[in-house]
Amino acid sequence: MTREMIKILIIEDEIPARKKLRRFLDEVHEPISVEAEIDTVQDAVNFLKTNVSIDLILSDIELLDGNAFDIYREVQVSCPIIFTTAYDRFWMDAFESNGIEYLLKPFSLDRFQKAWDKFLLLRNNQPTDHSLHLKLDQIIGNSAEKKFKGRFSVNTTQGIYFFETKDILFFEADEGVVFALHKTGKKHLLNISTLKEIEIQLDPLEFFRINRSELVNKKFIERIERYSKNALALKIEGYDRHLITSQSNTSLFREWIEK
After folding, report:
1. Which CATH number does the domain 6-125 belong to among 3.40.50.2300, 1.10.1420.10, 3.40.190.10, 2.40.110.10?
2. What is the predicted pLDDT for the residue at 226?
3. Residue 135: what pLDDT?
4. Is the pTM for the entire model greater than 0.85?
């Protein structure tokens, strides 16, 4: 008996990540067809509006021209989605979409295979749209048990001292180094090279990356002003310069700030 071809759409803006997904798909035992590989929100919207039949979407979240959830707000998707991302702060949005799995990069073949097996189980059982959604603790684990970084250390000539995460106004990346601006006004140089390293250690309900170089603490946002059509200016308590959201993150920021 001939098995039905599984049609897959890959939405991913990084070439190495697309190649990795292709390699992992080569390991599955079912007949598959990758219908397209897309790297932008707009191209994905255009493709999905063509009514091409797709059985599964493998979707990154941060794309070249914005956030993947903008795709699923504009186009109604009936097939399940396996999300692949380096960030764990999007898991609620994934749950509210047709997400059946949330793979945090870098993920292994074994982790991918488990997500694939879950897709097959749902496919074989012919689930309703509602049953595609998993319980929250099935996506990335029980958030109540997740441990977030409570404090940071700074090395000085006098020794090592510590400051609490909750007292940081925002983190800033600048030419390969990362600083933490404390509520006292002090700017601390951290022994960390990227904002991504910090972001995955913080509570996503309290901290949000508003652009490529700045990660803000919600409790110190004093006021929000319109900066342009697709960007906002944030007034931070005790800081005289406004921080500006990127166009791609403004929509998500608006949702996050209300949580």
Report:
1. 3.40.50.2300
2. 93
3. 39
4. no
Burial (Cβ within 10 Å: 0-12, 13-18, ≥19) of residue 130: exposed
pLDDT number for residue 7: 95
Helix/strand/coil (H, E, C) string of the chain? CCCCCEEEEEECCCHHHHHHHHHHHHCCCCCEEEEEEECCHHHHHHHHCCCCCCCEEEECCEECCEECHHHHHHCCCCCCEEEEECCCCCHHHHHHCCEEEEEECCCCHHHHHHHHHHHHHHHHCCCCHHHHCCCHHHHCCCHHHCCCCCEEEEEECCEEEEEEHHHEEEEEEECCEEEEEECCCCEEEECCCCHHHHHCCCCCCCEEECCCCEEEEHHHEEEEEEEECCEEEEEECCCCCCEECCHHHHHHHHHHHCC
pLDDT, mean of residues 63-73 = 86
Q: Which residue has the higher pLDDT, 135 or 92?
A: 92
Neighbours of 192 (CB within 10 A): 17
Fold match between domain 6-125 and domain 151-258: no
Stretch among 84-93, 126-135, 221-230 having the lowest mean pLDDT = 126-135
Q: Which fold, 151-258?
A: OB fold (Dihydrolipoamide Acetyltransferase, E2P) (2.40.50)
Percentage of the chain surpassing pLDDT 70?
Answer: 86
What pLDDT, on a 0 to 100 scale, did the predictor assign at position 94?
59
Q: Domain ranges for the chain, please list them.
A: 6-125, 151-258
Please state the rounded mean pLDDT for residues 25-30.
Answer: 92
